[in-house]
Design brief:
With 555 residues, the protein is mainly alpha-helical. It contains 22 helices and 15 strands. Helices cover 45% and strands 10% of the residues. Helix 1 packs parallel to helix 7 and helix 8 packs across helix 9. The chain starts with a helix and ends with a helix. The structure holds glutamic acid.
Length: 555
């Protein structure tokens, strides 16, 4: 046994497997040419927001388009930052938007797929096996330096005016510990980390290719970075990334920009471990215009609660809207395509990594809402009904009960103005529906009325009586309107708006005024979907009741 092998045994006597074992266990994927293997690898340290959702969307879509594999991996090795129910939150959030990973972690937190487990804290033995192997080969070593010692090294570097501050070269005092020293330290119970011996020296440069950013050149990493942390004996991101993405066969790593500068370090690790490098695509943070400064800035948890996936779910943005919006911000040319193909299935559009925004996609709530309105306006009334109901069962039980009780009525209600050439675009999210449509139901109609100025209240009873008398739900829209006009005409309301505008003093109002009175009596509002449709849906009896209630109220 050489010294390195002795140190490896001293450190990890219980690690008996070898990298070959895992290479065999996790066999290479057998996929068609060009298939991409991508992964969404969140840390359960906070909420999933528009930014992480967009990254996840790229992963999902790039795998899907290439007939590859998309998997979910939970990166929870930073125990201090892991939050309670963080993993459940991630799994739930993805499920709410119908993003199902081919492999990963289910709602019971069980891993599924050939490369399981997909939760990093459950892969410790694998990481330690590879770390031990690096130590055996003299490519990594234990470091027992205390905080104070590290601080002292730093101070010395500053005194020496080193351009590079860190644990490297001559300063890396634990690089050359003998097996005896290691043994002594271990016996003394000193905590240690495992560091990777950087092969680079100050001044070295490296080149690599980023799918979105093209050729990159930057300083190589000279620090002996930690690959196994003390206490938990888990790896930080760098080492877990190398091992997992290798064993799990990732072809394309799509991740946030913040990792761009770590690529040199990651490349060194891949090389030392004998792994092929996956391709990288570093995505800029999602941006937003700050309300106060008007400047673009990164979206933030505190300032932008509406970018949290959980908020979107709670507010009832349909999956379809979120997906359509993700397409919109994912590729700069999607909007143009959508205008040219308003009714096409968006899956016909090819998302490419090259067409991402370099500076970061822009989250714009108004735009998101517009997209959602459009998407909802194209759904069938039955679909809207089903989706609102499903949402309301969790978030508004009263609304759900009413909708369930009046199923047929509610579907007809959602059908009003839906199949027109220009469908009504009033619903942004399911949360809005109770406010927009609640008055259709007696259980929710609150008897509050928006009033028109200069209403001729004395005419109302007459108008309503005549209207109910002549109302016929079998006629068409124009016949119905003629009927309204003639009622108005008898009572001094001008049948032509143009004519009325010429001589307003000669009339009490015009035919539109008559409609407004009926509308207010039936709905309490001046603005509603098509009045004739509402009347047909209500039927004479319900109209009569609403009109009577209105008359009683204004007496
Ligand atoms: N856990 C890392 C993060 O949340 C993942 C980065 C990656 O996708 O590789 O930033």
């Amino acid at each position: 046994m050489n010294n390195y092998e002795k140190i490896a045994e001293l450190l990890f006597p219980n690690i008996t497997k070898t990298p070959e074992y895992y290479e065999k266990k996790y066999a290479k994927r057998n996929l068609p040419e060009g298939a991409k293997v991508t992964r969404f690898a969140p840390s359960p340290t906070g909420y999933v927001h528009m930014g992480s959702l967009l990254t996840c969307f790229y992963d999902y879509i790039i795998a899907k388009q290439s007939h590859g594999v998309f998997f979910l991996r939970i990166e929870d090795t930073d125990l201090e930052r892991t939050i309670d129910h963080g993993v459940e939150g991630i799994v739930e959030d993805l499920a709410s938007f119908d993003i199902h990973a081919d492999e990963g972690v289910d709602e019971n937190l069980q891993s599924y797929g050939n490369y399981a487990p997909y939760i990093q804290t459950q892969r410790q033995e694998i990481y330690l096996t590879y770390a031990k192997d690096l130590v055996r080969k003299g490519l990594a070593y234990p470091c027992f330096c205390t905080k104070e010692e590290l601080q002292a090294i730093r101070q010395k570097q500053e005194e020496n005016k080193e351009v590079q501050i860190g644990y490297y070269g001559e300063y890396a005092t634990c690089r050359n510990l003998t097996p005896e020293e290691v043994e002594q330290n271990l016996k003394a119970g000193k905590p240690f980390v495992i560091r990777f011996k950087s092969p680079a020296k100050v001044g070295d440069r490296v080149h690599f290719y980023d799918v979105l950013r093209g050729e990159q050149e930057m300083a190589d990493n000279v620090n002996d970075v930690v690959i196994i942390k003390s206490k938990s004996l888990l790896p930080p991101y760098n080492f877990a990334h190398a091992i997992d993405d290798h064993l799990m066969g990732t072809t394309t790593v799509i991740r946030s920009n913040e990792w761009l500068n770590s690529v040199p370090e990651h490349m060194q690790l891949f090389r030392a471990l004998g792994f092929d490098q996956p391709e990288y695509c570093h995505v800029a943070f999602v941006q937003r215009f700050d309300q106060e400064t008007g400047q673009k800035r990164k979206i933030s948890k505190r300032k932008d609660p509406e970018t949290a996936v959980s908020y979107m779910v709670k507010a009832g943005y349909p999956t379809d809207s979120v997906m359509e919006y993700l397409y919109t911000i994912a590729n700069t040319n999607f909007e143009e395509w959508r205008i040219a193909n308003p009714n096409a299935n968006r899956e016909e559009f090819l998302i490419t990594l090259e067409k991402m925004s370099l500076s970061g996609a822009l989250f714009d709530l108004d735009k998101f809402n517009d997209v959602s309105k459009n998407v909802i306006s194209k759904m069938s009334a039955e679909k809207v009904y089903e989706l609102v109901l499903q949402w309301a069962k969790t978030y508004d039980v009263e609304w759900a009960e009413i909708l369930e009780k009046h199923r047929e009525f509610a579907i007809k209600m959602f059908a009003i103005d839906r199949y027109n050439q220009k469908p009504r675009k009033d619903i942004v999210k399911w949360e809005d529906t109770k406010n927009l449509y609640g008055y259709f139901f007696d259980e929710l109609f609150d008897g509050q009325y928006e009033m028109e100025e200069n209403m001729h209240l004395e005419d109302l009873k007459d108008i309503f009586d005549r209207y109910l008398e002549h109302f016929d739900d079998q006629v068409d829209n124009s016949q119905w309107f003629e009927m309204v006009k003639s009622i108005g005409c008898d009572l001094g309301y001008c049948p032509q708006i143009k004519e009325y505008k010429k001589n307003p003093d000669q009339y009490k109002g015009h035919c539109g005024t008559v409609c407004t009175y009926i509308r207010i009596a039936l709905t309490g509002r001046k603005n509603t979907p098509d009045l004739f449709s509402i009347c047909k849906l209500f039927g004479k009896e319900k109209m009569r009741q609403r009109m009577q209630a209105f008359l009683a109220k204004i007496k």
